[in-house]
């Protein structure tokens, strides 16, 4: 079954990419661009910067006149592995023979660098380098191993055992040998090995990997790393933590691994701890876009309600990691509400992090860009700032491009689930679903022009069982929600419903429709979110909109206010809001008068946040000051 | 004349600490604590951490069995020099013989480390160290030299030539020899040498030092340093820059030096450039407290209107540097308005950066502390975070304590100036002024209980000349301003007046009174300051107030709103505001309803920002959300 997460217990069973096939719409296009452009773009850069070459050099060893010189940062191996994972998913999706050949070549080069005892890393433990595991805080050795193992999970599930998965097995065994009881009883400064080993245990049936994942989870918070415990979640145990904190990607990879361990070991206390941390993070430390890692410094979660839109980090990889966590919570708890966050992050963080052509990327995704930054050089010369206002072809720390590539390639795995009764649709995209429910085939076609339109149709193509339930997630923001049964009857849905479905003896040709409004709407922040007090944003369906300076008379976003008493309107394919453009004086900016100048009336078009910075450099803001 | 800045041209002549003596009130107390506690506290730490010992080790040199091991960061010499400067000012102020003895001992230890050719630095160019000037970007060698020279200026003006000033002279000559035309035509990554050499030229009469300062100023923006040009103001020339940017302390030291050079070389274009940069920085990049370095990252200025109170840096040293710049602009232009910023920074940033007992310090001075941070360990163990919610005894980068010590010791130098017509009072403190105007003695006593009361009295003690003008700065925020002449006549002052004075044939016993309201007032931000939109602050006279969680029912500052339709009231020695305490739900924090819950009415006491965190850990905010 082709899915990145395959829990053995839990409320819902994920449907794999062999069961769900995206057939049109936005995510179909994103997958096509990913296949046609992004994966090969990443391969190009990994070769050009010689990050793959590091494996060849380790394999060749040091010799007189040939000193060992390594390219890239200490974690660059992980980019190679994440690309391998993307390729494995893509090969499974399309069977692309060219990509399969590339995958096998890459496998050979990676494998040649593996040590006799399974250790595999190009930054430590080779001639002239620091010894293995001599810097667990920042060395990223287990992090890299984790990404190799996750790629192997993808390969096992899309292809079956091969040389790549055997390499990963030797790595996993080496990790267990080295970090098991009586070994190095510490953790890696960047979580990832936990979630990887837990899934590899599921994929291989080897309980030892799960046990090692459990040990790593339990060691977090035991302060086995030096200083900076908060940053890499070594300050408090996973069980005792109350909220996600520190480096956002680390925190969310760790959460994902902890859920996997909790689910496999039936550790409800651990599951509940992570769930509570997630819930509190969503209510206090998450941006409107779903962006996590609320602050620039340390790529980290900020304190509660510290959500500055201009200094947000909201890293693309943190979005991916948040989807990983939310998906695991969906499966474990059966609660559709986690799908709202997957949808929010996917449409606003992930989709926008890749340019329409698939060849440039945002690393950070702040909700406010104060100035129109110059575009990075066309030749993509490094380093390009990770927090700039424009997408870049590559970064010195280039975790996001390959991470986005693997996520888009596997995106169909997050669309739907089954239970013993039926199928649950979590993400709305044109697709076909062909699976078994309670041992009998159920085949569906989903048709929708979502999110342009708020109508999702499920047509039954085959139902070889009896009574089945077909369920939709109802987005929390959706209004005027109606379910239309195959007999044409219309059923109003309680606005508080988390999901809604129909139980029946479905026959081929039967259609079930979910309808709701996706009209653009004003959204206001909780009064405790200091940085956007007095502002409003416009959302349309799951899509967060933004204003760009390019569309503003005068071009100065600092001089814009909006009138939220007027509903946003759609015209000429764009959402427009009533606004005023001011002309404020240059003066000491604090004084007795709270009143503003009148400004000039204007109507301003907004665009989806994901499409920001696609027309050239621009200042941008999601949160618009209210007049 | 005992003043840190002695321009040879300009509109106003500064009065030295031998002419102005602070005799009571807040600044008298701060100077007393500085003398009794802070200076010796700094000396203790510099010995305990062996940062002074570095000089001994350089002097002793390396020998078998005695490898050279240096303590502290690469710029730690500068702390020793800033403390020497503080001591020199304090010796001049009080004649303390014990301190004079310490100063001489320190001089001997510093001098013993000086190389034959004048070079003096304990981090470079000694056995086992990197060569001199091999890392101009981050090495801080000229920065350290600059602080040594500034200390020598203090010594020359408070004492006269001695071994310390001769050491500095050799250093200055070495710098000119090395960095003059045909030498290393580059700059130091941290400005300071410019302002130091310009003043040393004034103090010694040596034109070569001024010329070298001019060369360094002109070289900024020529991109002679690697990367990061914005950070150390090597991105754009001083003449071409439009606003202060990059690292705040660097930017403001550079501005101070540029003004000095402009004034001495009668370069009006350069002066005007720096003045315009300052003005724009004040209107767009400065916090209500006068704090500069508006953002946490890089201790740097942010972009226009990027003024997040919780992630402000507003470093204490940047406050000192801003006072240096504002004072030079006061002297050069004669415009009293710059004194408003000196007052604002002094009362809110500088005074609060030192604990009442003089033994712990804030490095960063954000206007919003989200949580009650634990206090640093009582033994002062390093490292202590530079951005925490509590004062610390010392820091790994400990620039602020010694910088504050030298500034408090010389504070009387910023109080008043003379012109050919009379005396201008810029800062309101009880003091005596005894100077010459146009060659004839004028002696005054200033009496005031400012800022508790808005009344300043100048009494003439002696006037050996004829017609004289006595002028007061009128704070921009002051209302109901009146000047009362010696004859008792009351004169309303135009609210737009920058300064106000009386020309007359003053006789001993004549009194001139300035009166204005210091009643607490609501202050609102410019609508462009995103991070505090929808908030108000309370100021009382020059003092910015804040709320601490300790004073809040329930203790959760996130749940506070205030009612700005009710004027703040004074009761029991504290300012109180009408507030509501809310109890908001835990939910996704963005949605259709802008309305808040009602909350419970309460009255909340505020306290001066400078006194925050003096009663134990607390959450704190200056900007209070408006109901």
TrEMBL record, chains A, B:
Domain Non-reducing end beta-L-arabinofuranosidase-like GH127 C-terminal: 521-625
Domain Non-reducing end beta-L-arabinofuranosidase-like GH127 catalytic: residue ranges: 19-412
SUPFAM superfamilies in UniProt: Six-hairpin glycosidases
GO biological process: carbohydrate metabolic process
Source domain of life: Bacteria
Non-reducing end beta-L-arabinofuranosidase-like GH127 middle domain boundaries: 423-484
Listed PANTHER family: DUF1680 DOMAIN PROTEIN (AFU_ORTHOLOGUE AFUA_1G08910)
Protein name: Glycoside hydrolase family 127 protein
Source organism of this protein record: Glycomyces artemisiae
Organism phylogeny: Bacteria, Bacillati, Actinomycetota, Actinomycetes, Glycomycetales
């Amino acid at each position: 079954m082709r899915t990145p997460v395959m829990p053995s217990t839990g409320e819902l069973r994920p449907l794999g990419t062999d069961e769900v096939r995206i057939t049109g719409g936005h995510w179909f296009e994103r997958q096509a661009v990913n296949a046609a452009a992004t994966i090969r773009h990443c391969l190009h850069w990994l070769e050009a910067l010689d990050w793959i070459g590091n494996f060849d050099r380790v394999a060749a060893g040091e010799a007189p006149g040939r000193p060992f010189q390594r390219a890239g940062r200490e974690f660059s191996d992980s980019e190679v592995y994440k690309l391998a994972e993307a390729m494995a998913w893509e090969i499974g999706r399309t069977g692309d023979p060219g990509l399969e050949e590339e995958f096998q070549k890459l496998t050979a080069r990676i494998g040649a660098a593996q040590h006799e005892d399974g250790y595999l890393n190009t930054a430590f433990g080779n001639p002239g380098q620091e010894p293995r595991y001599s810097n667990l805080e920042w060395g990223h050795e287990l992090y890299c191993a984790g990404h190799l193992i996750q790629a192997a999970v993808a390969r096992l599930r899309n292809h079956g055992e091969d040389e790549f998965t055997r390499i990963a097995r030797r790595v996993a065994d080496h990790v267990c040998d080295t970090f098991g009881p009586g070994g190095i009883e510490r953790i890696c400064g960047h979580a990832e090995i936990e979630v990887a080993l837990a899934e590899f245990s599921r994929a291989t049936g080897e309980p030892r990997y799960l046990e090692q994942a459990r040990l790593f989870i339990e060691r977090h918070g035991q302060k086995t790393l030096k200083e900076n415990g908060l940053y890499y979640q070594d300050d408090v145990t996973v069980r005792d933590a109350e909220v996600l904190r520190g480096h956002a990607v680390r925190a969310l990879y760790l959460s994902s691994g902890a859920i996997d361990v909790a689910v496999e070991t039936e550790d409800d206390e651990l599951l509940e701890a992570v769930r509570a941390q997630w819930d509190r993070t969503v209510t206090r430390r998450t941006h409107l876009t779903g962006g996590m890692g609320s602050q620039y410094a340390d790529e980290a979660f900020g304190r509660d309600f510290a959500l500055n839109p201009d200094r947000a980090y909201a890293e693309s990889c943190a979005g991916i990691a948040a989807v990983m966590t939310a998906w695991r919570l969906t499966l474990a708890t059966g609660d559709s509400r986690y799908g709202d966050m997957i949808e929010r992050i996917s449409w606003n963080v992930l989709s926008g992090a890749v340019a329409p052509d698939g060849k440039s990327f945002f690393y950070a995704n702040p909700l406010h860009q104060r100035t129109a930054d110059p575009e990075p050089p066309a030749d993509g010369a490094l380093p390009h700032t990770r927090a700039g206002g424009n997408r870049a072809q590559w970064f010195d720390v280039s975790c996001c491009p390959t991470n986005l590539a693997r996520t888009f390639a596997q995106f169909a795995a997050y669309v739907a689930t089954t239970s013993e009764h039926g199928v649950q649709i979590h993400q709305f995209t044109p697709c076909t679903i062909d699976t078994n429910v309670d041992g009998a085939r159920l085949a569906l076609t989903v048709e929708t022009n979502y999110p342009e339109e708020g109508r999702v149709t499920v047509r039954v193509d085959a139902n070889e069982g009896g009574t089945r339930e077909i369920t939709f997630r109802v987005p929390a923001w959706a209004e005027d929600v109606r379910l239309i049964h195959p007999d044409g009857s219309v059923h109003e849905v309680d606005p508080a419903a988390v999901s809604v479905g129909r139980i029946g003896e479905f026959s081929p040709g039967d259609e079930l429709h979910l309808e709701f409004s996706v009209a653009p709407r004003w959204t206001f922040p909780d009064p405790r979110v200091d940085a956007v007090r007095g502002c409003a944003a416009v959302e349309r369906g799951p899509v967060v909109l933004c204003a760009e300076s390019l569309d503003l008379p005068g071009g100065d976003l600092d001089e814009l206010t909006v009138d939220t008493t007027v509903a946003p309107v759609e015209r000429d394919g764009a959402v427009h809001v009533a606004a005023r453009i001011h002309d404020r004086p240059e003066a000491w900016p604090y004084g007795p008068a709270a009143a503003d100048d009148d400004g000039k009336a204007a109507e301003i078009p907004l665009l989806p946040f994901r499409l920001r910075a696609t027309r050239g450099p621009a200042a941008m803001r999601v949160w618009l000051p209210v007049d």
